[in-house]
């Protein structure tokens, strides 16, 4: 799925599409998590001979004629057969394998091999199809269903990040959430919630998908579903942001906490689930990184950059449709205050790299000087839309975090080199991070090099792994991400 980011800007208008969605529970179809562990179809004609890894049409969870036309159009013009095969396998993967249930109004889409819907991931999974909305009515309806269900989840549990199937689906709650045995406040319900790790970027991803969906579809029905549930979700997003700007200590030295998570898992937060203390900065706190690891320091700077862009995007969206001037004003005001705080607290002067963006800060002087592979990341800041790649602080930051001397989580070896993550370990580079390098790069030679890494580290499967050992291509996590 993730390599589809490479081709976002290359999508071409498609002709009018008709779609025949499949039934979703075909006993004869192998689960893709096992299907993806071995090469399947006809190899490509390139030197790597990458296999065709799409399920048979009858086993795909949704079929879109518009998506198929994009694949045929692009792959027919690509000179590298292996890269064409990688695109063919991955761009279609969300629709082929992860749409577990939908009706006219709701869509439940899982995150790869995990039987739950993540807010951030479902947004990213569908974001690559957004330019096709005006050409493909069924795909538009499917995407609208993702937004409607996200809005419902956020209305019910705004601090949670991943969810079980909706009641209408008739699908039973899946077993064995990572939060089993956890103490969470505000309390959740594991028949509805899969995990309740508060991630600011998950809420922002909902705003981003909504904004981009309307941009390409002009469909206002998302604002009316569930008696205006979308606005309830947006109000909850703004409420969480207001709460997470509050510092740890009040004027009397009392500890203030709006969200706690603790339990037997090592990825729960310190200080009885409250996390590391945060100073009064005007930045927005978060608890988990996009990698699902807990933060070192509570103010993640890529999250702030995304918040500024998406809060302004929210105000712009509502202005276009002539709705909720109160939310427009609140979002605009908050975006401005967070931006001022980011420039005050979110940069660090280094000896070797000049002024750079920190990855995380606490306002007390603590700063994490590194990057992590998943978006939002420091490398992804131009992709997020905060500053462009020529911004001098971003340029310094990019040089630092994409170097062996500047980023403790920059793995390198004969197999692959790029940003790794403590979520796995320092020696496993994430192809997702390389894709982010590609979409933010202005250097053609660098882009070609990273594409070679991506093609040559699928271990013959023609699919993207989560991470790959820098010295052993056979040592990877997840055959399919």
TrEMBL record:
Q: Any keyword Protein biosynthesis?
A: no
GO-annotated biological processes = carbohydrate metabolic process
Instruction: Give one GO term, molecular function aspect.
Output: catalytic activity
Q: Which UniProt keywords apply?
A: Signal
Q: Which residues cross the membrane?
A: none
**Superkingdom to which the source organism belongs:** Eukaryota
Name recorded for this polypeptide? Glycoside hydrolase family 125 protein
Question: In which organism is this protein found?
Answer: Mycena albidolilacea
């Amino acid at each position: 799925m993730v390599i589809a980011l490479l081709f976002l800007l290359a999508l071409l208008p498609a002709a009018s599409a008709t779609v025949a969605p499949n039934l979703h529970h075909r006993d004869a179809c192998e689960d893709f998590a096992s299907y993806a562990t071995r090469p399947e179809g006809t190899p490509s004609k390139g030197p790597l001979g990458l296999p065709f890894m799409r399920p048979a049409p009858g086993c795909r969870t949704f079929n879109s004629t518009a998506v198929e036309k994009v694949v045929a159009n692009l792959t027919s013009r690509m000179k590298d057969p292996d890269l064409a095969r990688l695109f063919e396998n991955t761009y279609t993967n969300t629709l082929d394998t992860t749409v577990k249930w939908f009706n006219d109004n709701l869509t439940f889409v899982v995150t790869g091999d995990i039987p739950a819907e993540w807010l951030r991931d479902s947004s990213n999974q569908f974001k690559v199809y957004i330019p096709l909305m005006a050409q493909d009515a069924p795909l538009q309806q499917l995407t609208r269903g993702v937004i409607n269900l996200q809005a419902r989840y956020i209305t019910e549990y705004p601090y949670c990040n991943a969810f079980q199937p909706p009641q209408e689906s008739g699908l039973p709650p899946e077993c064995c959430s990572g939060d089993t045995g956890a103490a969470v406040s505000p309390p959740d319900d594991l028949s509805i919630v899969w995990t309740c790790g508060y991630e600011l970027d998950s809420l922002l991803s909902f705003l981003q998908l909504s904004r981009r969906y309307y941009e390409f579809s002009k469909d206002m029905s998302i604002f009316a579903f569930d008696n205006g549930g979308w606005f309830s979700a947006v109000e909850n997003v703004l409420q969480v942001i207001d709460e997470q700007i509050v510092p740890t200590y009040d004027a009397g030295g009392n500890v203030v906490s709006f969200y706690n998570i603790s339990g037997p898992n090592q990825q729960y937060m310190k200080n009885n689930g409250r996390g590391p203390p945060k100073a009064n900065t005007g930045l927005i706190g978060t608890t988990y990184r996009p990698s699902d690891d807990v933060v070192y320091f509570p103010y993640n700077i890529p999250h702030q950059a995304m918040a500024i862009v998406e809060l302004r995007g929210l105000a712009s969206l509502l202005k276009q449709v002539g709705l909720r001037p109160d939310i427009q004003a609140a979002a605009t005001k908050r975006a401005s205050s967070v931006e001022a705080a980011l420039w005050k607290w979110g940069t660090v002067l280094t000896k070797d790299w000049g002024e750079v963006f920190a990855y995380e800060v606490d306002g007390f002087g603590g700063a994490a000087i590194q990057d992590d592979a998943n978006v939002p990341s420091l490398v992804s800041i131009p992709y997020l839309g905060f500053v462009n790649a020529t911004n001098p602080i971003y340029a310094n930051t990019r040089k630092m975090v994409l170097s062996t001397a500047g980023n403790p989580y920059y793995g390198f070896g004969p197999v692959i080199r790029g940003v790794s993550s403590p979520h796995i370990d320092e020696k496993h580079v994430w192809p997702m991070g390389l894709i982010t390098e590609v979409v933010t790069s202005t250097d053609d030679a660098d882009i070609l090099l990273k594409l070679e890494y991506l093609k040559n580290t699928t271990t013959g499967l023609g699919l993207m792994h989560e991470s790959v050992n820098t010295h052993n291509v056979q040592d990877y996590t997840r055959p399919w991400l």
